[in-house]
Write a structure and sequence with these properties.
The complex is a heterodimer of chains A (233) and B (317). Chain A has helices at 3-20, 47-50, and strands at 23-32, 64-65, 69-70, 74-79, 92-97, 100-102, 105-109, 114-118, 124-129, 138-140, 147-149, 155-160, 168-174, 179-181, 187-193, 196-204, 208-216, 221-223, 226-229. Chain A is mainly beta and 233 residues long. Chain B has ten helices and two strands. Chain B starts with 9 loop residues before the first helix and ends in a 29-residue tail after the last helix. The chains are: A mainly beta (233), B mainly alpha (317).
Chain lengths: 233, 317
Amino acid sequence: MRRKPILIALLTLLAGSSLMFAGTVSGKVTYTGTPAHQKAIDMSKEPSCAKQHATPISTETVVTGANNALENVVVYISAGAPDEGQVPTQAITYTQKGCQYLPHVLPMHVNQEFEILNDDQTSHNIHPLPKVNIEWNKSQPPGSPPIKEKYDKAEFIEVKCNIHPWMHGYFAVLKTSHYDVSKEGGDFKLPNLPPGKYTLTAWHEKYGTQTADVTITGNETKDVNFTFKATAY
Amino acid sequence: MNNLKPMRCIGASLFAALMGLLFLAGFVSGASAQDTPDAGPKPSLVVKPMESHIDNITGHAANAKSDYRRYCAGCHGDYGDANGENAVWLDPKPRNFTLATFKCRSTLTGTLPTDEDLYNTLVRGIVNSNMPVWNTFTKQQRADLVAYIKIFSPRWEKEKAGEPIKIPAEPPVTIDSIAHGKALFTKLECWKCHGPHGEGDGPSASTLTDSQDNPIRPYNFALGKNDSRFKCGSTNQDIYKIFMTGVDGTPMPSFADVIQPNDAWDLVHFLRTLQIHRHGKENEVLMSAHGVIPPYVDKNPAPAAAPADNKAPGGGQ
């Protein structure tokens, strides 16, 4: 019992200090050139999915926004990450809905458990295609329980449903939880970075990777932007 | 890095390590001088001391070296990477042993097969492929080859083989069992790939590729005569294993988490009726029901069954 006040004091101190020195890296991901046209997906073979989309959705290999914004780019700390090996316990989910993967790219920490859900009225088979992690392939009919999995090595893994060949997604297995995926407008933000030297990597499934070095000295926000060269094929 | 263990007695370990190194150096240089004059840029192959256990026989990788070179390397490659000189001509491609992904397993998807699984593949060969039957070898030779397959991937040193799935005794073949199997074939959407009559012509069939991006066809159950077989065996138990554990490295997924053991037997019985030229219990039972599979009536419907939105294709529409 006597320990409690000390503990609380310690915790506040810790929280306070990390607040004081928490740096942030934020920025935008954009592209130059002309990206390949994304085709509308014909889901007529799967009516229960087709009817979930008022207008047909397009392939998501390259998703762009106004002002040359590039979405679905994973931005993460690839060197200097303070949390390598600290596996978060919080569950993350990958949902199959309307014969689409939500989110299209799911970042996760090495060894972090994630859940795969099927919200559709049709069977899917989840078939990730790793090169360094272990390959498996599981059927998930409607109403089946979530599939719980994890990967023990860092890798970008393509995910497929063989039944619905238009379904494509990625798992980004990283050695850090300091990551973000660029959203509408191409924005990303990595908060809570203690002072230190970092390498940032931005990964796009089609356009590859880019890196940038950044140093955080204290309570500051550093701007880092990435520009990818789009290819028309 | 993480398998460094604290050394209890540094002196002894050092001595042992040194002796080991000396031994290895002698062994490797001796071996490479002998039979790899033309190895080119590739490092000479180290035959790790892998073993296999088949019944009371222990297989040793080192003893399979010349058999592998002589009988397997032409397709599977000296380095197990499926780059043998004949590989370019083959469809499907030979297995790449460096990936340690195998089609014929009694174990769950993503796990390593058992020694028996690999051994049985050598006994059986793989139908509809160029993988031959190896029945001229002795049991010991095959066991040694199974051990040899393990030298190509580090997974065999880090992981144990998966646990074989449990298969309950097969219930009798009845028309009800076949009817339930058909309902499962529809509900689990096997037909999306295999087609409504199992002829390999489902709506997704033409789009399928294996994990190496080579086109692959779903199994056509209706082809073949009375002796029609599967890549991974020919018995009812083999069929049970195939769809429960999945055919790893291909679009054929595992259903172990979604089919109850007894339901799986019903599905086996129905799949046998798709082999229309086969003489067996299942087709006899179907014949005595005048060739008609009655609609399946669930006697204990689940309280909150998911609404079935899919149009049932059915075998006899």
